[in-house]
Fold each of these.
Amino acid sequence: MEMEGEDYEEHPPAPLLDSLELKLWSFYRAVIAEFVATLLFLYITMTTVVENKQSKGTCGGVGLLGEAWAFGGMIFVLVYCISGISGGHVNPAVTFALFLARKVSLPRAVLYVVAQCLGAVCGTALVKGIQGSFYASNGGGSNSVSPGYSKGSALLAEIIGTFVLVYTVFSATDPKRKARDSHVPVLAPLPIGFAVFLVYLATNSITGTGINPARSFGPAVIYGHKKSRDDLWIFWIGPLIGAAVATAYHRYLLRAGAFGSKNLGSLRSHPASAI
């Protein structure tokens, strides 16, 4: 049963163009935080993927579960660390969803995506520099459509996987839910990281799990394999579609009742996060 007279704060929607924030150090600090976080995310996860492939056939590999924990666990750590600075997006699809929900302005969204992509390239370059010949011989952690699957199947897997992630982000950071379920002490980054973990297990055999355009972009640039570049559009279009659908589902269906005159900007909540 829904509580009446909710005790929670609603924020107005972010302006489309906010020239004032471009003059604030906090804005650029947030962009830097997104760059560094995505760099660290790619470094840890791609190192884990490359080393696991190198160790196959021995007892030293972490296996699929280990890779999934690296992705989900790193998102949990990074979102926890920078959510109060940048919102902890670490994913262009999440930034796109939050822009559609009017939680961030267009300049912030654009600079976040640029920072995330640059961070992904730099993080992957570090992996290549440290791993040396092992990096190229083990696929460079790149995403591509796996043999036996069509591009349509891979695109759908990316759409659904990103939907799960973005839906979790909105649910975990919803101020109305936080007020209603304040007796349940759940740390927002935890379900977000766990969502990444579960999606990785479900889609790894199909696409290697993208659900984050920056994660796919970095290895495609550094590894430079033709197939990973040819398939890269799937790992941009799929996550962006999934993010848009999840935004519409949460904003206009699940939270439709909150969009009266008082609650028009209900989705501009506390920092939202993801992969």
Amino acid sequence: MSTFTYISPPLHGLFISQSDNFRMRCDLHVHTKASGLINSPIIRHFCYESYNDAEAVYSRCKRLGMSIVTVTDHDSIDAAEVLRDRPDFFLSEEVTCTMPSGTELHLGVYGITERDHIEIQKRRNDFIALLMYLTERKIFFSVNHVFSGLTGKRKAEDFEWFASYGLAFETRNGQMCSRANLEAERLAVSYGKVGIAGSDSHTLAGVALTYTEVPGARTVEEFFSGLRGHHGRIRGDHGSLAKITADVFRVTGAMLCEKPWALALLPLAVLLPAITVGHWTNEIRFCKKWSKLVNAGDSAPRRLWDLDATLRRA
């Protein structure tokens, strides 16, 4: 089935029988140990963001009904080594890129090749160059956790870039509160963007509990053709304070199993609930601030030929 056939509903009905019209599902935001070390004071030297094993992630996805599987590690495709022989696996990553404003952004990029990964990493400190490459290669990408402060500060002009050039928004993230997800969904609808969903799980417990569904798709290509045609559906859980606190304890437990010498830090574990409460509170505050500002203003299109003359590439 061609892309043209899929994005045209009448032809879709003609060329796909009811027996083939199943729901293709994929968790589009999953992490493994290949995501690297956590970016927090002190523990950044020895604690990983995730201790998920790639094969365990694959097995859980299949057990919970995911038709196709990917992993989106931070600026890494190392997990693909053990999964590349699976016919229903495709290569993706979560790219940390620098916006023209100087802020950081996480982009989910999907269905890439190893060569794409190399070129993407070369360009990730220059959002414009990265955007041009993704567009030229027709790579599907999403702006992840739009209303989250995980990547630091946000500026109003960032949302102008999202409005003009973002292809898709992550409108349900399994680690974010329902309000942040609903605001992202509202913004995606306002901007006419594709909505996707993923668990963003750093432990196995959350993998495949939040996912994207495309009815009728039978291959990875058809899945993304369906998304581009706005046929995707977001499904599954939102995040919660209890959920993220439990995950922090799971990551801590995995770290202690791998590095027994870190047991000396165990007394500090009593601080973990307070840390997650602080994080959760900051996330809610961030969402309230930016959703109010974005909804109150106009989303002026950002054009590449209208760039500030003082802008310099990184």
Amino acid sequence: MSVSHTSWTARFLAVVWYEILWNIRKKKFLGMLVVAFAFTTLALALGHIANAFGGPAVEPNPNFVIDSNVGLGGFVFFLFAIVTAMNTISAEFESGTIVPLLAKPISRTTVFFGKLFAAFLTLLTTYCFLMVYMTIGGFVVYGPQNNLHLVPLSLLGALFSTLIWISIVLLFGTLFRSSLIAALGTFGIFLGTTIIGQIIALVAGQGWILTYIPGSGNTGSVGGPPDSGTAVSTGTDSIGPNLINYVLHSSWEVTYYKMNIGGITPGGNPQITWTPLYSEPFSTVILTSIAVALVYFIVFIAISWYLFRRAQIIE
């Protein structure tokens, strides 16, 4: 038992190391760090850029770091998932390297999960770099920061949010064995949940549907309608900020509204009113989003693993 366990561990780590070396050789890891650095720098410099073009002066903001979600958002989660996983499985089929890889005394299950774990390590390293850089940058640009002990919750939420998109990328890549289709298919889902879903939520009042699909989710409000209250997103992309807000405001009650567009006022603006639909505790919002993230990740990864095991290899 001990010899067998050690042997499996060695094979698994060999796959992980193979994948990490491939990422380094193809400059994937370096590219992710560069993109992460660029997005975070932009988030830090945005206030000064606006000020240079006549915007308000940059004031000290002790909550900048915890409010910024480490400079990450729905599009960045999607982008990093594409970069991390679009070539993980499909590129092996496209280049033909899947043949010598599977010819080695390693099971397909070990190969699949070794590659998945390598993608996770790459993502974790990138997000840790972001967390440290954003924390230091926030202190330099906006002064001393509050509640920095909660920043790891942003890291945890970012991993949850991105792993869902990674599982979707892997599903498309394993099913079609094409990196291009893996990227385009995931992009289509991202657009659908982000743009079309939000229109349905606001106008039709059916935003509860968005709570159960990956992405930005439904939008609720605390302390009043969306135009005056504090916005709260129920989606899997907002797990990190919601975890932080729950620690700080555990008693929040989130209310969801339907937007009603009336006639146009003499000034030319349409009259907008808000109809409350229902409310729920903030804890329910967070638990639901985490459960949705886990279910999607497990289901999509299980399907991808099954397809990879059943894939026919043609030399």
Amino acid sequence: MPWPGATVARDAEKSGVTAFCSGEFVDHEAYTTLAEMVMATETALVGPAIAYAFARSPYAHAAAVRSLWKHGRGRMFLGLGSGAYRINRDWFGVAADHPVDRMCDLVGAVRAWLHAENGAVVRYEGPYYRIDADVRAPVLGRLEVPILLAGFNKRMAAAAGRVADGIIGHGLFTRSWWNDVVRPALAEGTQAAGRSAPVTEHGWVITAVNDEDPARAAADARRMIAFYLTVKTYDPFVAHHGWEDPVAAIRAAFRRGDTDAMATAVTDEMLSAIAVCGTTSDARAALAARGDGLARDLIFLAPPSFLVSSRRREAYAKASLGLVGAV
């Protein structure tokens, strides 16, 4: 589950939650949240899922991980996502052309910093990043931190199989998208790199549980799905499922600023294929039914966040603890 705060996290660890992830948007930054997570947990795996990859240099990503490693030794991962092209251009003011190639190069450069030994010059040469750092201070030393990529479409999923330690599936992922698109692309990437073992799969699932008002939980999940589907990056996913008409309605409502109509346009088929919501019993059954439509190694239960207050997100986080063990 994403980071719900220290109080909930303590209860979550006691309930059997084994990992937390941080994310980021305009109102929260991944590594600041990761610092809170590291300090307020004891055994859980922690990491960003994801941090915006191109918004920071390879040095900045690696230095953030190094600064937290002393407190989270052996239980950290680094999840990187490219972000939408317009977000990189208009929000961050950074180049994001050729995102798959740029991401592969970034992974290599970050690893160069994470694997740097004391006394050795840190060197890396790629098409987008070049490092030639003669760090004389004895502050380095090799860190083995898994790097995972947010691979939504085929090419980025293949890149995760080729250069990363794993993939992070998006909250929109369905069973069909995992099995018909993402996993074949992952396998193609691992084979191209000559790797024999499959890479790690993380994935998060939009999760809204409310035993007193399951309809509200479903509405919040619909709104979250609709918000994601306003982005054209996900058009191959939409076409794969034949959801062009409801997504066109979602985007028209978004342009009007009508968030209720956005939620209404999400069909029952879309809701059941993507989200886990309703009562605890409903949600446990939905999780169990997803089977291989969930990430193989680690599942994050992600409360909706679009137009959902922090108090309600915390309530959803607490309610999701009733789902531990459902898979």
